[in-house]
Amino acid sequence: MGVIDKLATSLNRRDETANQELAQSIADHADRLAVKELVDNLTNRNKNIQSDCIKVLYEIGERKPALISKYAKDFLALLESKNNRLVWGAMTALDTITLEDPETIRSGLPAIVRSTNSGSIIARDHAVSILTKMITIRKYEKTAFKLLIEQLKTCPTNQLPMYAENAMRIVNDDNRKTFVNTLSSRTRSIETLSKRRRVEHVIKKLG
């Protein structure tokens, strides 16, 4: 059986187990030909196959990012797709390979940030994760931090606590004031008490 024949759609499966098992097998065997076939089929006329391919690819990325990192530009191109499933799937894949190919990710930051306006929470979640990882690389720290702050200023309040907590690790003496002030400016707008307290906890912990 070829790789496409093993996708959930080809097997008439509605669950994701087949795709996850396929990703595990490809990762275990470092099957680069299978990865290429999946990438080639991201433009398949069958949208279900497209969706399964991007699913398997980012599952591979979570297990062995080096296997899919050479296709960073292909994933960036998908951010312009009208198919929202491909957009957030590509963003998920990019998140897994950020530290494998930060230079390509840096060139794609404008597209990554634009995609946060697509309306997909998943796309925004992974975009913020990408920015947080990029800040850990000195070469890209200032650019990525500025973009992260913009996300913290504009993201839905429901997502703010998670973003704040996940980004705590990148706070240092140089950016602490800006980070804390940004969070403080939004606390009053957080209606859910538990979420507001999470943000306030981050602020307090950072001093």
What would your notes on this structure say?
With 207 residues, the chain is an all-alpha fold. It has a domain at 1-67. The protein is built from twelve helices and no strands.
List the helices and strands and how they pair.
Layout: H1 17-29, H2 32-40, H3 47-63, H4 72-78, H5 84-97, H6 102-107, H7 109-114, H8 121-135, H9 141-154, H10 160-167, H11 176-184, H12 193-206
Helix pairs in contact: 1-3, 3-5, 4-5, 5-8, 8-9, 10-12, 11-12
List the uncertain runs. none
Return the string of H and E elements.
HHHHHHHHHHHH
The total strand number stands at 0
C-alpha termini separation: 58 Å
Overall morphology:
elongated
Average pLDDT figure:
96
Structural class of the helices, strands and pairings?
Answer: mainly alpha
Beta-strand residue percentage:
under 5%
Helix content, binned percent = 55-70%
Q: Please outline the major beta sheet.
A: none
Tally the helices: what do you get? 12
Describe the oligomeric state of these chains in a short phrase: single chain
Rg is 18 Å
